[in-house]
Predict the 3D structure of the following.
Amino acid sequence: MEEPRGRQTKDGIRIYEPADFVGMHKAGRLAADILDRVAALVEPGVTTEVLDDFIRDAVEAAGAVSATIGYRGYQHASCISVNHVVCHGIPGPKVLKDGDILNIDVTVIVDGWYGDTSRMYVAGMLSRKAERLIRVTHDALMLGIEAVRPGNTFGDIGHAIQAYVEAQRMSVVRDFCGHGLGRVFHAPPNVLHYGRPGSREVLEEGMFFTIEPMVNLGRPETKVLADDWTAVTRDKSLSAQFEHSIGVTADGCEIFTLSPAGKFHPTWG
Ligand code: MF3
Ligand code: CO
Ligand code: CO
C-alpha cells in the first residue's frame, strides 16, 4: 500500500526523500550480507533447498522479513536459478553438481524498506564459457548503473546493457525486467535491459529501482515451466543474472546492495 506522503512523476514513479536513502541502504545491505554468507555453502552435493533454508534463517535472525515468502503464492526466501534457468527457480531437492552455475536472488524487508539483490555462484569448477557469461553479465549491470544520473533516461540504461551484451555475441532476455521499489516490492517503472538512447522516462534524483539483466549464451527467448514460476531459456543455453537496488542521487546513484565483504562476483573471493 502506498502511503499518501511523497511526490510522484507523471509516469507514477515515486520520488523519495534524502532520509529514505538510509532505510534503503539498511535493507540492501542485509540482503547483500546474506548473499555474502550463503557463498560458503555453495558446493557440489548441496541441494538448493539447503541454501534457501540458510537464507530464510538468516533473514529471521536479523529481525527482518522475507519479501518473497507469501508473494503471489511463492513460498521460499530466495529464488535459485541453476544453469539454463533464467530466473524464479524454486529451491528444492535438486543437488548441485560440479560446474553448475546459479543465481541466488534475495529480497528482504527492513523497517518497511525493500532490499532486492541477486548474484551468480558456481559449484566447484567454473568452466571458461560460464566464466565469460558471468563476467559479461556483471559488466553489463555495472555499465547500466554507470548510465544512471538525473537527466538520462531509462532507455539509456537499457541501451548501455544491450549494446555491450550483443557486442559480446550474447543475448539480453526481454521477458523480465527490473522495477521500481522502496516501500513496495514492485512499482513503476519497468526497467528494461534493452532499448534506444534517450527513450522512456527521464531519471530524477530520489527514484529507487533495480537493474537486473539476464543474459543468455544463446537466444533470448524464455518459457515458464508448469510450476508457473521457473523461467528457462527455450534453447537450453546457459543464462546468468546480477541485480542491484539503487537510488538516483544529484550526480549519479547510490548502490544499496553492495557486498559488505566485497564478494559480489564469484571470482572475487
Ligand atoms: N526478487 C525477484 C526480483 O528481482 C522477484 C522474485 S518474486 C518471487 O524482482 F516470488 F519469485 F520470489
Ligand atoms: Co528485482
Ligand atoms: Co531480485
